[in-house]
Amino acid sequence: MKRKVQHVRFNELVPCRTAFVDTYNPGAEGKENFTIIGGGVSENSDQYVHIQETPGFNIGGAGQPAGCINSLHSHRTAEVFIIHTGSWRFFWGLKGADGDVVLDPGDLISLPTHMFRGFENLTPISATNENGYGFMFSVLGGDDSGGGVVWAPEVLEQARSNGLILVESGQLINTRNGETIPDGLLPVVPVAGDELNFYSRNTITDESKVVAPRPNDAIYCETELIGRNSNAVIGERPGFEVRRVQWGRGQGIPWYVPNMDVVLISNAGSVVLSNGKTLGSGDVAFIQAGEEEIGVKPLSEDVSELFIVTATDDPAGETRFLGEDTR
Questions:
Q1: Of these four, 52, 120, 257, 298, which has the most CB atoms within 10 Å of its CB?
Q2: Residues with Cβ < 8 Å from 130, sequence gap 6 or more?
Q3: Where are the domains of the chain?
Q4: Long-range contacts of the stretch 230-235 (C-beta < 8 A, 24+)
Q5: Positive or negative, the Cα torsion across 102, 105, 110, 114?
Q6: What is the 3-state secondary structure (H, E, C) of 149-205?
């Protein structure tokens, strides 16, 4: 029986440039948000969703010009980023000053829930990339992404002064366009006091606990990056597992898709599925469970890299660590 395969081409991704309340805040202008699988956490009802159904998690994307910042925020479910292009700095803490790390293409970072985090595109401007644009994929735990985003207080306050108000229904009110808050709705109240201190309970003290760098050697390898097994690079149980398959130049060793709902993210090079579909760099495929055997082989003479995401029966919500291994 043939398995249902849905795919989204990187060059056909539809961005939303007004997805969040910090859209007009200085330093945040120009960022793009993508919802590839599932509705994600966009606060704009006009956000385009490429594949509505979810396999137990959401796949999204963030694209930004050089110097653009995604403001401090927190999530109630797991958030994992896979760097596709560019150089990115992640920072965290109540004021974003607890620590930071810079990641490059092929690197992965897993961020704890209930911890303010932000990120900035550091990609150099060049003749071939005039605005230093960079892109990364995101994986959000849960089918409904846990109820959206919690913003640092100063982000909401600054947004209001710049014409955007987030109300309790999750709707954005753009006062620049003459919009007013509908009757019966109230603006989101910034977290404060004990509730604000709650967001300091999780932090990152050891980058190796949350970062999985791309291997240097261009050889065939399969690595469990996030999962319950003892050999996983990051020992977490966020409601999904992530593996990486990498092929070196000219290698043709096949990898076989397991009999379950699987998302494939082609992060570098090109691969071909045994059912005839090809995935170029940046393409995403959602393959639903079935008995049909589907193999994957590289097409590119360069290094090919595939990230595989599968759901687990672990809770997708507040199961995250305080620096300890959760396997």
A1: 298
A2: none
A3: 5-160+188-207, 216-311
A4: 230/327, 232/327, 234/108, 234/110, 234/209, 234/210, 235/209, 235/325, 235/326, 235/327
A5: positive
A6: EEECHHHHHHHHHCCEEEECCCCEEEHHHCCCCCCCCCECCCCCHHHHHHCCCCCCC
Q: How far apart are CA 307 and CA 299, in angstroms?
A: 16
Per the CATH hierarchy, to which homologous superfamily does domain 216-311 belong?
Jelly Rolls (2.60.120.10)
Note whether 226 and 302 are within 8 A (CB): no
What's the pLDDT at 74?
A: 94
52: exposed, middle or buried (Cβ count in 10 Å: 0-12, 13-18, 19+): exposed
Position 63: which residue type?
Answer: G
pLDDT digits (tens, 9 = 90+) for 7-49: 999 999 999 999 999 999 999 999 999 999 999 999 988 999 9
At 327, which amino acid appears? R
158-164 long-range contacts, Cβ below 8 Å, gap at least 24? Answer: 158/22, 158/25, 158/26, 159/21, 159/22, 159/23, 159/24, 159/25, 160/187, 162/24, 162/25, 163/24, 164/21, 164/22, 164/23, 164/24
| Distance (Å) of CA 296 to CA 82, 195, 261, 306 | 20, 47, 16, 9
5-160+188-207 adopts what CATH topology? Jelly Rolls (2.60.120)
pTM summary value: 0.94
How many other CB atoms are found less than 10 A from the CB of residue 99? Answer: 14
Give me the phi and psi of 315, to 5 degrees please. -60, 140
Residue 226 pLDDT exceeds 60: yes
Q: Is there a shared CATH topology between the 5-160+188-207 domain and the 216-311 domain? A: yes
3-state secondary structure of 250: coil
**Segment 177-202 mean pLDDT:** 91
